[in-house]
Sequence to fold (143 residues):
Amino acid sequence: MLGDEAAGWLGVLHPRLQGRMGWKRPAILFAMQLERTARARVPRYREYSKFPSLRRDIAAVVDDDVSSDRLLRCVLQAAGDALNDVTIFDIYRGKGIDSGRKSVALGLILQDRSRTLTDTEADRIVASTTRHLERDLKATIRE
Fold:
């Protein structure tokens, strides 16, 4: 995926067609949208930090139609340079979550390249990030 669009596809040739071709092993097929990949943002190099990282988790309830990519872009924009990595480690729908919504658990790895971040600084980054999620994606933050 590039943004909300598929960058291509991957699949296995149907066994019937494989048999007609006389191939004994499955054929793996793929196609890429080169125009889309050419426009993709190239990750920038970031020097490894010798200072420790901190992890903070956020659980945000968002509408079902909010894509993972959109959610991650919002976090990246809000958290700034101290954000070293962000991952989605759980998506929950069910008891306690309104219909048409989902709870998404995010793990943020915070790290400064020049010094050790304090807990207060990390908490400030998380607070800023949650405000962005609430404002931009109409998220509700779970405690």
About this structure: The first helix runs from residue 15 to 21. The helical segments are 15-21, 34-39, 68-79, 119-137.
